[in-house]
Design a protein that fits this description.
The chain is mostly helical and 223 residues long. It is built from eight helices and two strands. It is elongated, with a radius of gyration of 20 Å.
Length: 223
């Protein structure tokens, strides 16, 4: 049985920043999937909800803040990974998935790669929906429901989103628990809970977006 390697004191602030920004991004994703699931309730409710959000005067400062959080989170994560690797110049001869209490998994081993992939996806997603075709639903309300139906009628777009949501799930599978543990929620009382939270959140959030995409493509977008 191996012992847990303690984190150098110089990296503790970085770990705290990664944890805090990770929790903020997780909370945003929770709100984001809740709002997007309203598409199942029809164009009226979905467009009214979207209009309430985009007409809020705080939306621009929040978007700027969110973009800053994403950049800081990724930058600090890459920086800590590089420092950890430089502190261990001799690589392991063999990598294997650990069992038991270990958190080593595909998700934990690909955090930087999935994070970089999502950094590419986010601008594409914003350009597609925030700056996509502007349809009028009436009374100054934008018809984002129609825009979503059109975008997810394309097999290429659907395939791209499905692959990306799998990457989101992989990132959350390890990242949610890791973020909370970085802020001190670890030990016999908290560790089992945050690990379960991470796995459930990964399935629920990624699964929710996948369900929306497939529903539009297979049902709503074809009607």
């Amino acid at each position: 049985m191996g012992t847990r390697r303690s984190l150098p004191a110089s990296l503790i602030p970085t770990k705290l920043i990664i944890g805090a920004t990770g929790v903020l991004l997780f909370l945003y994703l929770v709100l984001h999937i809740i709002g997007n699931l309203m598409v199942f309730l029809g164009p009226g409710i979905f467009n009214s909800y979207a209009h309430m959000l985009i007409s809020n005067p705080l939306v621009v400062p929040i978007e700027i803040g969110l973009a800053a959080v994403i950049v800081i989170h990724l930058y600090k994560a890459i920086a800590m990974t590089m420092k950890n690797q430089s502190a261990r110049p001799v690589k392991y001869a063999k990598k294997a998935w650990a069992g038991g209490a270990s958190q080593k998994s595909i998700g934990s081993s690909t955090m930087i790669l999935t994070g970089l992939a999502l950094l590419i996806f986010i601008p594409i997603h914003v350009l597609t929906f925030k700056y996509g075709t502007h349809y009028d639903f009436g009374d100054g309300v934008r018809d984002l429901y129609r825009l979503e139906m059109e975008n997810f009628s394309s097999p290429l777009t659907v395939g791209f989103y499905l692959i990306t949501m799998v990457l989101v799930g992989l990132h959350l599978w390890h990242g949610v628990a890791s973020s909370f543990q970085s802020l001190g929620l670890e030990g016999p009382r908290f560790t089992p809970f945050v690990r379960i939270l991470g796995k459930v959140s990964a399935v629920a959030i990624a699964g929710g977006f996948i369900a929306i995409t497939l529903w539009v493509f297979l049902a709503a977008g074809r009607s």
